[in-house]
UniProtKB/TrEMBL annotation:
It catalyses: carboxyspermidine + H(+) = spermidine + CO2; carboxynorspermidine + H(+) = norspermidine + CO2. This is Carboxynorspermidine/carboxyspermidine decarboxylase. InterPro entries: Ala_racemase/Decarboxylase_C, De-COase2_C, Nsp_de-COase, Orn/DAP/Arg_de-COase, PLP-binding_barrel. It is found in: Cytoplasm. The lineage of its organism: Bacteria, Pseudomonadati, Pseudomonadota, Gammaproteobacteria, Methylococcales. It comes from Methylomonas methanica (strain DSM 25384 / MC09).
Amino acid sequence: MITAEELKRRVEHSPAFILDMPQVHANLQPLQRIRQASDCRVLYSMKALPLGPLLADLKKRVDGVSVSSLFEARLAHAVLGGQGSLHLTSPGLRSEEFAELGRLCTHISFNSLSQYQRLHASGDGYSKGLRVNPKLSFADDERYDPCRAHSKLGVDVALLQTALPAGIEGLHIHTVFGQTDFQPLQAVIAKLKPFLLRQSGLKWLNLGGGYLYHSISDLNPIIDTIRYLKAHVAEQVFLEPGKALVGNAGYLLTTVLDRFESDGKTVLVLDSSVNHHPEIFEYQRQPLLLDEHKRGCRTAILAGSTCLAGDIFGEYRFDTLPAAGDKMIFADVGAYSLIKAQRFNGYALPTLYLYRDDAVTLLKEDEYADYSRQWLG
């Protein structure tokens, strides 16, 4: 794996987003073991990072892609070339788009009974499913909780106790995010067991994402669960990791533009912004800084370069305070960062780099033409 110092030396532009493909491949290894042991299928959830070279690489390593919209479906279909599975679930399906979605996708999990009743007859060629809400919550932050009260995500399983609507061939279940053990999955399957056994003979079951497989040492619980489901409930079981593949494979390189004192604390202004990783501001999350020294005697507030007062990455510790011109690297920013990034204040998006085969390759530099095209047409 490439080191932070190597990235600083080999990446010319700042700010820059770097995707570490060897790390993506390492993250795939536990999923490959699960697939081999259980004969399940692995989909990449492209909402985490729909980068073209990444999709092209994963095409050869996973069984398909999961998407949430028409644009994602078009992009995934173009990359896959009609090979592999293409799964879709979304609360926002539009009637005028559905015929095309039906042609592009191999599997569609309807988010509600009304959505299914309204749309399923307007497309064909795909396998019909329902997203089910088991009404079990595992997230401390309800903004991440698909099973929160009054959830918009999935059909309350209590509404399906008698039978599934005619034509339904599969079910989609997604309940967690960022989990580092399989206890939630086991609890969900235990609760749903009577319901699932009544649906025995389903063509497929999609267990969704939300598990960080590379951080889970014992894979036997999910292997055993999948084997049980394949034996008693569905012909095929799908997993759809997103952050599990790319989260710890993404880096944000940034440069200090200014250093000054403010009310007794040092502020370092960076050439990046929380607008390049909006979840920092949205969820008040402090990203991992590779240059921090946890026991350092000096502290500094790392701030973005926009006029938003809350454009703050957090307060970090250092042995020696960085100065203007010094580069720093945030890690674990591969998922839900670049896809949500925007150009507030007219600042360019991070330049894109790909690291693989011991080479750091420039993919795209955000230029004024991109900004003007967005606003002037």
